[in-house]
Design a protein that fits this description.
By secondary structure, the protein is an alpha/beta fold. The chain has a domain at 4-29 and 82-114 and 172-209: P-loop containing nucleotide triphosphate hydrolases (Rossmann fold, 3-Layer(aba) Sandwich). The protein has nine helices and seven strands; from the N terminus they run βαβαααβαβαββααβα. The chain has a five-stranded parallel sheet with strand order 2-3-1-4-7, sandwiched between helices. It has a two-stranded antiparallel sheet with strand order 5-6. Helix 2 packs across helix 3, helix 2 crosses helix 4 (64-75) and helix 6 packs antiparallel against helix 7. The termini are close together. The structure holds zinc ion (ZN). Zinc ion is lined by residues 129, 131-132, 134, 149, 151, 153.
Length: 210
């Protein structure tokens, strides 16, 4: 199988995480989530981890150059020999430029596209049970007990799924992250997959694009 150094793009709720898992499995490569890595680096107590901590402890954003150092360390590990999936970075054109400057080679950029209205419907319908952890969707996977979980608890909407929160994350995505499509288009790396109603249909398109 060819080497796949992939950046996955997609609005929150577009189904990026699920596709990342399936690609990782098929290609035998790791998904590199910057959020998780930053937490690991801090937990490891390394010098870099201490640097990161000094920012997060003061409520500051970790600078791009530091995040890229962490990514470069991670990419140097053996399990990345056949490739990797970058999820959650870069989010802006300056971050993509910094990745280039630091010599991180990218072979493919895949953007999973879903209309905002469809994302709003998907996320707005999610319900969770705080007691047993069960998840439902008012349209796609309704609870047999209506607004309640079969365990008896009233279902709730997670803070992340609140329509106002989703809307503002979509605005940020369109403003900051979507310009990356043009950036990678110019390099001839961009592939677009239109998210389908059925997961297996989206997956088939994703695999065909890679
Ligand atoms: Zn429950």
């Amino acid at each position: 199988m060819r080497k796949l150094n992939l950046i996955l793009l997609g609005a929150p709720g577009a189904g990026k995480g699920t596709q990342a898992e399936l690609i990782a499995e098929k290609f035998g490569i790791p998904t590199i989530s910057t959020g998780a890595m930053i937490r690991e680096e801090i937990a490891s107590g390394s010098e870099l981890g201490e640097t990161v901590k000094s920012y997060t402890n003061n409520g500051q954003l970790v600078p791009d150059s530091v995040v890229i150092d962490i990514i470069k360390n991670r990419l140097a590990k053996d399990d990345c020999a056949n490739g990797f999936i970058l999820d959650g970075f870069p989010r802006t054109v300056p971050q993509a430029e910094a990745l280039d400057e630091m010599g991180v080679e990218i072979t493919d950029v895949l953007s999973i596209e879903v209309a905002d209205e469809a994302i709003m419907e998907r996320m707005g319908g999610r319900r969770v049970c705080k007691k047993c952890g069960a998840t439902f969707h008012t349209k796609y996977k309704p609870s047999p007990a209506g607004e309640y979980c079969p365990c008896g608890e009233k279902l709730t909407i997670r803070a992340d799924d609140d329509p106002e929160v989703v809307k503002s994350r979509l605005v940020i995505y369109h403003e900051q992250t979507e310009p990356l499509k043009e950036f990678y288009q110019k390099k001839g790396l961009l592939k677009i997959v239109y998210g389908q109603e059925k997961l297996e249909d989206t997956t088939a398109l994703t695999m065909a694009a890679l």
